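Pinned message: reference record for Isoaspartyl dipeptidase
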Amino acid sequence: MITLINNVTTYNPDPMGQQTIALGGEHILGIDPDLTFTSSLQQTVIDGSTLIAVPGFVDSLVHICGGGGEDGFASRTPEMMLSDAITAGITTVVGALGTDSIGRTHSNLLAKAKGLKEEGLNAFCYTGAYHLPAPSLTGNIEKDIMFIDEVIGVGEVAISDHRGSQLDAKQLSELAAHARVAGMLSNKRGTISIHVGPSDSHLALLHEVAAHYDIPLNRFYPTHMNRNQQLLDAGIAFANAGGWIDFTTSTTDYDLAHGEVSAARALAQCLAKGVEKTRLTMSSDGHASLPVFDENNHLVGLEVGHERSLLLAFIEAVKEHKVAFADALRAITSNPANVLGIQKGTLAAGACADLVLLDSTSLLPRWVFVRGQCMMADGELIRKGRFE
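Predicted structure (tokens):
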């Protein structure tokens, strides 16, 4: 079956103007303003005149099999469902374990990623978790990265957080080196996802590793960098020194009232200060627990992250903070794909047909295609998870 999207404003994520896009099988067959397509195959034609075509969103940190546990067993958060991603325009997720890598396991994480793939989503995952020694499926992170297709790196490893392992530069450099070599041997990037907590040490450990070992800053992918203004300032310095930084879109009213910078505002601030636009990303931290700790690290509240926050942060960046549409878009498409080393986040002839058609006024998804399969049609969700 062929799908033709006529006269649609297109971003790849750079602006391409009005185009006609042809989808066939799992790929984009062509993008051209004068494209015509003659075939005996069944065709679906979509009028794109009130829509914007963009790459499917890449969510680089999702707790797809749930997270949490900071307030006991009953505080374990639920799993992500397929519709949580599709309704937010997300076509690719990267799953991770978090604080709990005991009750949650890599067997569970990988099985969930494979299940989401069977349901039609692009799904990857990290080996390792908050703590060292890094837990893994095979007992060895190098083997996980090399021999398990879905595993693309290690994370999220916690620094500057009372829940972390309080690791030192030598331990982190060894972990990064193992991930890098395993990535080289399996044609993966071997990214190290870094959970950055609220401690005043910020990113000092990453700079120490880069200063004393043969590990550059761009081996690390620190997230939660909008936790407070001081951490954001440290992130700006990190990005200017050659690293990438990620902003978390899931938040709470309490956190925003106590110093957290919204992801959209953080993105706008970095761009205004001249940070290279390709070094900035946003992720949802979907289905993670969002614990609130007092000054003595006592838990005083707990909420759950949502994948839809990624979409809402994109809209906030464009509409409220006047971030250029392409710059906001690349933070959730091509930029995270490049950090992770996956072939996603762009629209081009021959590329995988992961595509979202946004309403040109509201910027909400109207159509969602994953590997050429229509998952949402004219605002109606037509593909759900098996148990939804």
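Pinned by admin. Summary line: The longest strand covers residues 2-11.
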